[in-house]
Design goal:
This protein has four helices and three strands. By secondary structure, the chain is α+β, with helices and mostly antiparallel strands. The protein has a three-stranded antiparallel β-sheet. The longest helix is centred in the C-terminal third of the chain and has 11 residues.
């Protein structure tokens, strides 16, 4: 069964205020994971949030650093 996050859940995951979630959603919806509405309430799929967070993480430079050291 799919897990759906509320505004409060998402705010907790991102360590921001609920008001900030609403502001980001209104000003720049692309600044948050894709959401959908259940009635008048915003919801996020857990899988979408996890994928969005993973995409925000910087990629590792371990390979390029190691190759520079061996050169």
């Amino acid at each position: 069964m799919a897990v759906h996050l509320t505004v409060s859940d998402l705010a907790g995951e991102l360590q921001i205020d609920e008001a900030t979630v609403y502001q980001m959603r209104n000003r720049n919806p692309d600044a948050l994971p894709p959401a959908f509405k259940v009635g008048k309430y915003l919801r996020w799929r857990r899988e979408d949030v996890d994928a969005w967070i993973a995409a925000q993480l910087p990629t590792s430079n371990v390979t390029s650093i190691a190759s520079r050291r061996s050169a």
